[in-house]
User: Fold this.
Amino acid sequence: MAFQAGGQRSHPRPVPESPEARAYLQDYATLLEAVPFPSVVFDHRWDVVLANSAFEMLFRSVAPHPTAMPGDNFLRFVLFHPDAAMILGEHESSWCLPMLAHFAAAVERHGHDHGLQAIRREIAQDPIMDAAYRHGLPHWIRSVGPGAVEHDGAVRPLLHPDPRWGTDCRVVGETPKTLQDMGYSRLTLVLREAPRPAAVVPRTVRRARGATGHLSVVPSPPD
Assistant:
């Protein structure tokens, strides 16, 4: 289940050192593949550890990018990939700002992590994103409340390439303890079927009282 959209990964996929942990991940990959919705496991840097085929299908149309492919690092994809807004609806308010809030919390916990610091430098290189991170983000969190930052349970716009799916999804965080102990998290995007177009109900045709063989909307011939 090595998701390789757009070519080779820009860096090696995170792999735990313990044989038991690797065996667990192999079995967990089998479980993940059985889920019909896009589902992804990532580490504290948002480096993708596992992703299922539904995740690959969701992002199959994105163009290659050297550092921001969704199967490499999901945070980088949300923030830096030019095609992200084609799939993640209301991209800035519904996806970028919540992800920036989680990134800020990760920097507080793992401030010396080289991967996180590299992302921070990329944010700093974009004046608009840097201003949003340093100044706009605290104001946004105060305005919407901390609950809007959380992924689990959030309903967010999503534009799936398959027309049978609707225009939003529910983000579900479902990380078992074993994954937590490895430092990993899992998110699943629960898709919703697109509403079916209303069926055209044929107009009820009534026969005039005493009439024979004529529709009520067609006048009878004169006697």
In short: Residues 32 and 57 are 14 Å apart (CA to CA). The longest strand covers residues 165-173.
